[in-house]
Specification:
The structure holds 2 protein chains of 2 kinds. Helices cover about 30% and strands about 15% of the residues of chain A. Chain A has one domain (about 15-170): P-loop containing nucleotide triphosphate hydrolases (Rossmann fold). By secondary structure, chain A is an alpha/beta fold. Chain A contains 5 helices and 5 strands, in the order βαββαβαβαα. In chain A, helix 3 (about 115-125) links the parallel strand 4 (about 100-105) and strand 5. Chain B has helices at about 5-15, 20-30, 35-40, 45-60, 65-75, 100-115, 170-180, 195-205, 230-245, 290-300, 310-315; strands at about 85-90, 120-125, 130-135, 150-155, 160-165, 185-195, 225-230, 255-260, 280-285, 320-325. Chain B is of the alpha+beta class. In chain B, helix 2 crosses helix 5 (about 65-75), helix 6 (about 100-115) packs antiparallel against helix 7 (about 170-180) and helix 9 (about 230-245) runs antiparallel to helix 10. Classes of the chains: A alpha/beta, B alpha+beta. The interface of A and B includes residues 29, 32, 54 and 78 of A. Strand 2 (about 45-50) of chain A pairs parallel with strand 7 of chain B, so a sheet runs across the interface. Chain A: Keywords: Centromere, Chromosome, Nucleus. Chain A: One of its GO terms (cellular component) is nucleus. Chain A: It is found in: Chromosome, Centromere; Nucleus.
Chain lengths: ~190, ~325
Amino acid sequence: MSVLNMFHKHPELNTASILLVETERQHQDKLAEAILAAQRSFNVNVHLADSLPLPTRNEANRPRIDLVVFIVNHFSSRSLELTKSYLQHLDVMYFLGRLCFLVNDARSAKSDPDKLHAVREMAAKYSSPLLFTELQTEQGLATAADRLLVFTKVSAGFVPGVSSLFLNTLTSCSHPMESSSNTLVDTD
Amino acid sequence: MEYTVAKFLQKTLNKIPVSGLRRILEEWDFLSPAQLRSLDSAKYGPALRLKVLALCEENHVQTKHVIELDMIYNHAYSTKRNWSVFQFYEQQELTYTMKVTEFVEQFTANLKQLTSHVSVVIKQFEDDALLIRVAWGDNFKRPNHFFPTYAVYHPHSPYVFISHLGIKQRPLLLQALLIAAKYTDIKEIQLKGRCLKSLRDLVMRHFKPIPCPKASQEISASHPNITNEHAKHQAYLKLVADDAFGEGTLPLLETAVFKLETKFKDPVNRILENKTDPFRCVIKFSSPNLLESLKSSVELGIVNGALSPLLTSISLKARNHFVIKERMPTNAPGP
């Protein structure tokens, strides 16, 4: 089973690489452009994929991936199931702070709270951050790009004294509450 | 204003959305420009409609004016109705060129001869389409203007698009159409939809997918720092989708219905294996834009491999409704 490995390649000078994985390819193009347009002090390479494992023919040219972002479509359960199956193809080292989940448009009226709950559970299980974004607007794209760049900067080692595992303890997603949030319990 | 006329006018006005109301009133040309300008002050939908009703009453509106308004609305918003397609066969005189006035006269005369209590209005619009409106009545009732039948006929094509035709009135309307258009036979083809333009494109085969072999072009990324890991695979999928459905915008269809009359085959459970009767079931695919969603399901890789030929043949055969019988040794599923 081919696995995406963290430390099998040398890092490049002042360059970081992000991998955006999305099963339905809706937002990854715009997000990639927003990341490259954002203010930063280092070079960024963005790789787009719709599934893991990545094709082996690109193996030689691919740089070391510093951050893996899974964009989960919480409107469909298929997206969530596929994402869980892709996690098997990641090296263990990625789970220590170099992995991030992203959910778009969680405020929409069409969103199902159960599916959102399931995504949160998955993020909490792998103790990775879960970002809620609004990629439909320009401002939302810029904000999401900035947040991802903060993770990338730490994970590529450009911030002295801060490691990705350290940042992960602050940003990882917590388990959602066990009881349903709809019922109000009256306690005296 | 008579009660029936008022009710009819009110119902018709309520159907027209406020955003298109100005344009339709201008096309109707029943209210004077001064009256139309006085409508500018009312911005709120129901208030605007009340004002229009009052102005129409001033101008002494009658049923025939409201019928014209109804026809203009149905021509502009024809996507609100479900249209079925009928095809003419065997033109009687091959060199006959249709004159619109002749068609109108013959059609109205024939229909009135068949049943006397109908109201028939025919109007020609810019894109060479004849909109025929028939309101049906019988010996005890006046023509019912609230549920008319609409038919759209393009004089130089053998197709008619009909909506809201009852079973009892079918033979009457079809016979009148046959005599007026000078054909011998008319049949319903198994195609139904909402968008008239798409139906017309499908039957006239304007968009037929031409399978031309071309090398798969990889979609180049917009920025040199962005690389697509699956570029080759995505280009291949796009090629498969384009081959099956053709490039460019696809016609707008809402449903595809498959009526199965085949035997039930289940190698795992073997429950209904011994029954000799076919297992009848109906499969319905519906979507705001069916062909586009089928094409993108291939492009995004949701479907593994190519789509079943039953689905790709929707655009090739220009049909929505299929009946699939048991496969005989000689012929393919149909008709």
